[in-house]
Amino acid sequence: MKNKVLMIVLDGVPLRNWTRLFGNLEGWVESGDAQRWVMRSVLPSTSASCYASIHTGVTPQVHGCTGNANVFRLSQPDIFSQVRKAGGVTGAVAHSYWSEFFNRHPFDVVRDIEYDETESATINHGRFHTMTGYGLVNQMTPSDVDLFGTLTNLCGRFELDYGLLHTCTLDSMGHRYFHDCQEMDHACFVMDEMLAPFIPRWREMGYEVIVTADHGQDARGHHGGKDDLQQEFALYYFGEATGPSADTELHQLQLAPTVLSLLGAEIPETMQAAPFLKR
């Protein structure tokens, strides 16, 4: 692979929370160490549908995942499969849906919770969690610093070319508390503070880093529909490539071909959106 990339997906963070509450990320934008754009999700702006589109570069109307109750092994080429095709090493620290979409379905909590499969798997090194029992009273989310540490561990041990991290903490907090509250302000502050030390570390390890969301949330903690609060979120890029002007709105379907172009892997014909970063 020409380069190495990590994608960090913080689930369910609307644009206004990124720009208002993530002081470390915004500080790097001000210093010129990061670039930020607004990105719009596919429809439905539902988590599983967005996860599938982020990596396949096609809409839910094409890949067929219409929501969280409709998760299966996807048939389209995706970032993981294209990196493997090019001889690269992949890894993911994420919700179990990602393993089901891109490796095997159904998810077996014993077999698939952790695996290192250097030859057969699309995701070579997987560390997954299910959030079984999730609800408003009990969020069932792992600590984010543990997830960041696990991804860093995989990068160091297995020299990942492409790595994904996904966490549902802020999405779960938004569903529980909505967004105009002290609890949500603090949750975003803590996420920003936990994430910040890892970004320079990943950069020192030779990775370009993308930090973004899968969708936003509206004032009542809802998403899934066609609404700016539900669909719009921020994307931060740490790396040497150049992108469009900061006021350009990007679309989620551009993520997959952009990551593959950064890595130097082949972009399949199914990914019709144009990459937004160039060298």
Key descriptive features of the protein:
alpha/beta; Alkaline Phosphatase, subunit A; 12 helices
The domain tally reads: 1
* CATH class value: Alpha Beta
CATH superfamily: Alkaline Phosphatase, subunit A
Neighbour order of strands in the largest sheet: 4-5-3-6-1-7-8-2-9
SSE map:
Elements: E1 4-10, H1 15-21, H2 23-31, E2 35-40, H3 47-56, H4 60-63, H5 79-85, E3 90-95, H6 96-102, E4 114-116, E5 125-129, H7 144-158, E6 162-167, H8 169-177, H9 182-195, H10 198-204, E7 207-212, H11 228-231, E8 232-238, E9 249-251, H12 255-263
Parallel strand pairs: 1-6, 1-7, 2-9, 3-5, 3-6
Antiparallel strand pairs: 2-8, 4-5, 7-8
Account of the 3D structure:
This protein is 37% helix and 18% strand. Helix 8 packs antiparallel against helix 9 (182-195). The chain has a single domain (4-263), classed as Alkaline Phosphatase, subunit A (3-Layer(aba) Sandwich), CATH 3.40.720.10. A hairpin with an 8-residue loop joins strand 4 and strand 5 (125-129). It has helices at 15-21, 23-31, 47-56, 60-63, 79-85, 96-102, 144-158, 169-177, 182-195, 198-204, 228-231, 255-263; strands at 4-10, 35-40, 90-95, 114-116, 125-129, 162-167, 207-212, 232-238, 249-251. The longest helix is centred in the middle third of the chain and has 15 residues, at 144-158. It is α/β, with parallel strands linked by helices and 279 residues long. It is built from 12 helices and 9 strands. The model has no long low-confidence stretch (mean pLDDT 97). The protein has a 9-stranded mixed β-sheet, with helices on both faces.
